[in-house]
Amino acid sequence: MKFQIDKETLLNPLQQIIGAVEKRQTMPALSNVLIRTTENSLTLTATDLEIELVSQIGIIIDEPGEITVPARKLLDICKSLPNEAIIKFSVKDTKALVQSGRSRFSLTTLPANDFPALEAINSIYEFEITQKMLRDIIDKTAFAMAQQDVRYYLNGLMLEISSNYLRAVATDGHRLAYSEKETNADIADIKQVILPRKGVLELIRLLKDTDEKVKIVLGSNHLQVEFDQLRLTSKLIDGRFPDYNRVMPTDGDNIMIADREQLRQALMRASILSNEKYRGIRLILEKNLIKLQAQNPDHEEADIELEVDYSGDDIEIGFNVNYMLDVLNVTNSEMVQTALRDSNSSFLLTYPDQSDSKYVIMPMRL
Question: Would the CA dihedral through 138, 143, 149, 151 be positive or negative?
Fold first, then answer.
């Protein structure tokens, strides 16, 4: 194998795929990147057996071939070179030689045959969506995913796909985030899949706030997102996601409307003296007023008041302040609305100018 390439042309795709490289290697090949060349293209592949990232570059190749080299070392070498550097890459015996100017690096290699590949995806559904729309619904929901929950189906993001909408729902059992976008997918029925946490985080990293489209390919066990010169394939979690419609409160007739930023600042002030472990805060609703109270094991207290639009029953409820702040941080909307039935019920948060997203927070005993 032999080719030469300028630094930026190699560095950008390396940075895109590096998230799939296994840090705690269970197989030596998982810490490597597979470099495969044909006469006019260079393909870089990284995987941890849960997700796979593939990037393709169109360049003229001197000698085609395939090999695997340590991914992070190759990335660090590229980063360390001057911006206008030309990289010469070749393979001799069991070593990969990387040369640029007066710098020479010799890297260990493993055969391409040792590199594990995800099984081929059998397409069930395919549709396109803009990067902006996909990123938006993931940003508005991913924070509510569980982390290392024994209910493994909560450790990911549920995507529900139909002919006219794409929904994302995440929950950790204490809160739920829901967002949807209209689509024009040619799909006969409704399909639910659960994308694991790592696949979700990689998508957040890779998706841009643009109207460029990505192609989503849904298989029986995998989900694939195809960018212009990049492809992410992720295994799906095999499990049944909870019925999110049953969690959505529909009888919350005590409605409070507040300035989102003022409420966010008030919650942050109150949280300073909340219990560091449980993060519980007491919220007291009175006519056109909310009081936020926090205490910690050192008997320190915070008491914050904020004027709001509220004419419902007097209610006192406890909740995790981080859950509320997470919701208030995912939007730039001016106003936020909460609806709740009583002090023992979960409450629904929405934004009056964004009907496509809803959030549910369970109360907690203080």
Answer: negative
- Concatenating the DSSP letter of every residue in 58-111 gives ----SB-EEEEEEHHHHHHHHHHS-TT-EEEEEEETTEEEEEETTEEEEEE-B-
- Class level of CATH domain 248-361: alpha beta
| Sheet order of strands, 309-310 included | 191-196, 156-161, 165-171, 175-182, 354-361, 347-351, 335-340, 254-259, 309-310
**What is the overall mean pLDDT for the chain?**
95
How distant, in Å, are the alpha carbons of 189, 273, 288, 299, 300 from that of 303? 51, 10, 17, 13, 10
pLDDT score recorded for residue 284? 97
Domain 123-245 has CATH 3.10.150.10: yes
Is residue 188's pLDDT more than 90? no
Beta bridge partners of 43: 36, 56
As a whole number of angstroms, the distance between CA 44 and CA 37 comes to 9
For 238-248, the pLDDT digits (tens) are 999 999 999 99
Residue type, 288: N
Provide the whole-model pTM. Answer: 0.93
Instruction: Give the dihedral sign, CA 129/135/140/146.
Output: positive
Task: State the residue for tokens 């209610």.
Answer: 315
180, 223 contact by CB (below 8 A): no
Strands 123-130 and 354-361: unpaired
Least Cα distance to 15 among 62, 60, 70, 55 occurs for 55
Alpha-carbon distance of 182 to 166, in angstroms, equals: 6
Domain boundaries, the chain: 2-114, 123-245, 248-361
Q: 2-114: which CATH architecture?
A: Roll (3.10)
CA of residue 346 relative to chain centroid, distance? 25
Q: What token pair was written down for 260?
A: 């989102």
